[in-house]
Amino acid sequence: MSRIKVAIVDDDHSWINAMVSFLKRHLDIDIVGTAESKSEAINIVKSVEIDVLLMDINLNGNMCDGIYAVSEIVNIKPLKVIMLTSLNSDEIIRDSFTAGAINFVLKDNYEDIPTLIRKCFKDKTPIEVVLEEYKKFKRDEQLKDLTSSEREVFSYLEKGYTYTQIQETLFKSHNTIKTQVRSILSKMNVKSYKEAIKKVRTGGLRIG
After folding, report:
1. S-S: 161 plus which of 67, 165, 188, 208, CB 3.0-4.6 Å?
2. What are this entry's molecular-function GO terms (predicted)?
3. CATH top class, domain 4-123
4. Residue-level pLDDT, tens digit, the chain, 208 residues
5. 52 near 4, Cβ under 8 Å?
6. Domain boundaries in the chain?
7. Which among 138, 121, 122 has a CA at the least distance from the CA of 79?
């Protein structure tokens, strides 16, 4: 029997232990890692094979730190993320979906978690389909003011190319690339191309 690899991120150590004990009763679920902070979560995602990630929205006293973590994690690895929350807030739920989560569950309803894990793992849920389209829409929204040539330059910046590499790839002068990047930053109202990339990848969420 194929087991679903699950990791849990929550700053409440006792809650993690309780959830690990609860999920271990389900033979098709394998807990492959736990983390109590955003940095620990990112390290686990980079080092362990995970199918479904359970992420607490409120990490380390920051109401949105879990959301920010998801926005970074889904760009590292295409995971299915279920948000854990104690608050039934429409705004928080919307921001979670924008960041890349595909479902959420109230902690009080923890008994629903195994079923949600299985559904997320086996199928592309209707909400996933909607979210894929929504994330594409949010990406296009961030880039809507850029010209086609500026979008091309941005795509290479997003891939990690240096100015020199972009210059050689597109057969443009260094000054042309610099001018286009300045225009991109101005239109997107950001101070650096790294900030521009983060803004696009997070659907415009303000991340500190």
Report:
1. 165
2. DNA binding
3. alpha beta
4. 689 999 999 999 999 999 999 999 999 999 999 999 989 999 999 999 999 999 998 887 766 788 888 988 988 888 899 999 887 777 888 888 888 888 889 898 999 999 999 988 887 655 666 777 777 788 888 899 999 999 999 999 999 999 999 999 999 999 999 999 999 999 999 999 999 998 888 776 655 4
5. yes
6. 4-123, 137-201
7. 121
